[in-house]
Amino acid sequence: MSKKLNWNEGWLFTKEVSWVQDNKVVLNEEAWEKVNVPHTWNGKDGQDGGNDYYRGTCYYTKKLNKELVADGEDVYLEFEGANSSADVYVNGNLAVHHDGGYSTFRANITELLEDENTIIVAVDNAPNDRVYPQMADFTFYGGIYRDVNLLCVSKARFDLDYFGGPGITVTPVVEGSDAKVAVKAYFTGLTGKETVKFTVKDGDSVIAESTIAATEGTADFVIKDVHLWNAIQDPYLYSLEAVLTDGEKELDQRVIRFGCRYFEIHPEKGFILNGKECPLRGVSRHQDRPEIGNALLPKHHKEDLELIKEVGANTIRLAHYQHNQVVYDLSDEMGFVLWAEIPYISNHMPNGRENTISQMKELIVQNYNHPSIFVWGLSNEITMKGDTDPDLIENHHILNDLCHEMDKTRPTTMAIVSMCPMTSPYVQIPDTVAWNHYFGWYGGDTSMNGPWMDKFHELYPNLPVGMSEYGCEALNWHTSDPAQGDYTEEYQAYYHEELIKQLFTRPYLWATHVWNMFDFAADSRSEGGEDGMNHKGLVTFDRKYKKDSFYAYKAWLSEDPFVHICGKRYVDRVEDVTKVTVYSNQPEVELFANGVSLGKQTSDVHFFYFDVPNAGIMQLVAKAGELEDTSKIVKVEKFNDDYRMVETGDVLNWFEITEIEGYFSINDKMSELMSNEAAKGFLLNAMMSSAEGRNTMADAGSIMDNPGLMTFLSGFTVKRLLSMMPAMGGKPMTKDQMLAFNAALNQIKK
């Protein structure tokens, strides 16, 4: 019988290329770093800002004694994730090359084995023009960051060589009260005498079974009065056991869990599951943590999904790549509706077509059997430089057709960048679409989000549309007068209150996904006072603090009764009367200050606003039925500067910027500069200089020639745009350079 051995422990690691020659270890192995996988070499430098984390080739090595795998006729090395390209060598011989950092790949090493073996894995996350992703707002951690397994298998077995899949597909189709289940198994090495026994189980109870010739490989079953997989309300699972035998002994087996459900994505009614409207309201998720980067353990994935369940979400967009199988398995069990996608993101690369195809094949083949997956995502914000490139359009048609060819049961979708024209032919390629909009954060204001979606829906009444990203950043900064771009927890809460009211009341939106559930690393970023991070999460990077906006969603989505006072980290306040917001999914809330009731309120939007007298120390208690939450505020005479963002190091603060009345400064908005020819010309030249020689989203010509992008950027201050240039691939600007830039603008009259 085939077996799987975990091979995570006891690796040696080095960044020093000179220590490896002709793919053999030539230096005393004691000088290498001892590591276990999952492992990344960017756990720290990929999170500290500066866009200077190490990207290149690193090496892992480990000894393999043939006795360990002696009971296998064939031996495979299985890698569940190595970012982003990998070469696996056995005794100096190349066993496999793989491009794509987020999917499983295997190497048949049988013919290369000796009694004692040296395994070397060269993993490379260096920039190139053919393997996605190469440009995106997150850190591309290098390393063998998921499990490594040894597979000891018989010659006759389930296919291990087809895009990393399990070698079997299970396709349930619900018809009336029953479900027809089509099973297809793929084998290699058959002699013709093997049989396969399929057993369909409901828990421990056998529903149906069939034994057929393995060369036939297919079987059909009927589940009477089927128990449907019904998302988070009832994620019911069946299982299929498949055992391959040669008449004398068992050779290989698979156990596949599956769920029976049917669905429709309707342009007016949104997502419909098992005949009932089921609005998909949820979050997007990245896969990293402090210091360990993307080298997560199962407990980390489980904690993430439990937090997502707590907020009340029923859908997750797994951005922007294939996630760990643990995540898909847990989603099957917990009932999340998943959007699964490949990292075809931000910048279309003419040499990358083959890689988009291979990554899509791996995504579908490896994840076909998961009932939690409902759509395949083609790309994300790929039209950053425009939507008219014929190669880009053709690439999307190829991927769209590929998805439909490989999977007849699921539709396609994609996440479209906000500035892409509504009328673009590119928009009409997939079965459904969704948009990434940040009105109210990067540009525009919060009130624009709902009306924009209405306009698109009116233009394409038969095309299902959703919101794939929206969000704004918040750190531990606070204010009683929140404003767009201030990075305060209070503005983030206000922003999400407004977006919730606009998006959740439009039933035609088939899905909405907050960007993001958790703060995550983006080493090129320098925003909010903490470099190297994107702080749009509802929960902090370490998963220890749920921001107030977390509870805004919980109030709308969760059925678990609760009440929450906002602003717990904003204690010291200067005003005599201050506003305190309470979130609850209960119909009525009463707030007490030092034991005195400030009244009861009802709200049809789950948000309650109280004016609270601020004198001395005020102990606050919010009550909703038997539930209560506590907090306090303290009257101070001077604003506590610990609550105000003051950036340190080579970062420019607001109070260091010279402003001259009647002249421009970097505190002015892009829209103002673009309406002045002198200022526009100066800005264009500066951006071209930043982008020079780089493959960048910050290409000045592309930006200036894109009306949608210019509208999007119009609400940015120049300072904010300059600070984001590294995230768009441009050169970072030092504090002195930004001051010089400001001094030049000070010479241009408005």
Can you tell me about this structure?
The protein folds into 5 domains: 3-153, Galactose-binding domain-like (Jelly Rolls); 168-258, Immunoglobulin-like; 264-547, TIM Barrel; 572-642, Immunoglobulins (Immunoglobulin-like, Sandwich), CATH 2.60.40; 651-745, no CATH class. With 750 residues, it is of the alpha+beta class. It is globular. The model is unreliable at 693-701 (pLDDT under 50). Strand 3 and strand 4 (24-25) form a beta hairpin. Helix 6 runs parallel beside helix 7. It has an 8-stranded parallel beta barrel, surrounded by 4 helices. Strands 5-2-6-12-9-10 form a 6-stranded antiparallel beta sheet, with no helix packed on it. It is 19% helix and 33% strand.
SSE diagram, text form:
Elements: E1 3-6, E2 11-14, E3 20-21, E4 24-25, E5 33-35, E6 57-65, E7 74-79, E8 82-83, E9 85-90, E10 93-99, E11 105-108, E12 116-124, E13 143-144, E14 148-153, E15 157-158, E16 168-175, E17 178-185, E18 187-188, E19 195-202, E20 205-213, E21 218-223, E22 229-230, E23 234-235, E24 238-245, E25 250-258, E26 263-266, E27 270-273, E28 276-277, E29 280-285, H1 298-311, E30 315-318, H2 325-334, E31 337-341, H3 353-367, E32 373-380, H4 390-406, E33 412-417, E34 433-436, H5 449-459, E35 465-469, H6 489-503, E36 509-514, E37 520-527, E38 530-534, H7 548-557, E39 563-565, E40 572-573, E41 577-584, E42 588-593, E43 596-602, E44 607-613, E45 617-624, E46 627-635, H8 670-674, H9 677-691, H10 700-704, H11 707-713, H12 718-723, H13 735-745
Parallel strand pairs: 29-30, 29-36, 30-31, 31-32, 32-33, 33-34, 34-35, 35-36, 40-46
Antiparallel strand pairs: 1-14, 2-5, 2-6, 3-4, 6-12, 7-11, 7-14, 8-13, 9-10, 9-12, 15-18, 16-17, 17-21, 19-20, 19-24, 22-23, 24-25, 26-27, 27-28, 37-38, 39-41, 41-44, 42-43, 42-45, 45-46
